[in-house]
TrEMBL record:
Gene: comC_3
Family: Belongs to the peptidase A24 family.
Domain Prepilin type IV endopeptidase peptidase: 5-106
Cellular component terms per the entry's GO annotation: plasma membrane
Pfam family, one: Peptidase_A24
Organism: Oxobacter pfennigii
Lineage of producing organism: Bacteria, Bacillati, Bacillota, Clostridia, Eubacteriales
PANTHER family membership: PREPILIN LEADER PEPTIDASE_N-METHYLTRANSFERASE-RELATED (PTHR30487:SF0), TYPE 4 PREPILIN-LIKE PROTEINS LEADER PEPTIDE-PROCESSING ENZYME (PTHR30487)
GO MF term list: aspartic-type endopeptidase activity
Name of protein: Type 4 prepilin-like proteins leader peptide-processing enzyme
Gene Ontology biological process: signal peptide processing
Segments crossing the lipid bilayer: 26-44, 51-69, 81-107, 114-135
Keyword Membrane set for record: yes
Keywords of this entry: Membrane, Transmembrane, Transmembrane helix
Amino acid sequence: MIALLCTVPLLWAAIMDYQKRIIPDWTWIALVLIGFVSAFLLPAPALYERIAGLLLPGICLLLLAVRYGGIGGGDIKLTAATGFCFGLNALALILFFALIPACIYAAATRQRSVPLAVFLCTGAFVYMGICFAVLR
């Protein structure tokens, strides 16, 4: 149920990132709020895993953005919020399902700038689909 609530902000972030290359702040704030509420309603993932999912990718992407550039602040905040909502382990799978198509897209279109929210949304949907298929 909580995963379904995440679809609206993720989908909106993907649409806006694809069209305008901007991620609205309300999308990542909504994900953090959904993650915060679900942390008290659901036993898994644990709060420490959610905090790790927020801090670890957030700090790593921030350092990469400062050092090399090319990563927008919206991408950093959305990835960190997704990590808080789903937890660090789930975020690793989401990024796996997101970064492979993102790299293929970048190579096929010969673009250096990729709308990461589109692929993060795709990865989250693949992850949620797998979770729903396993639970059935």
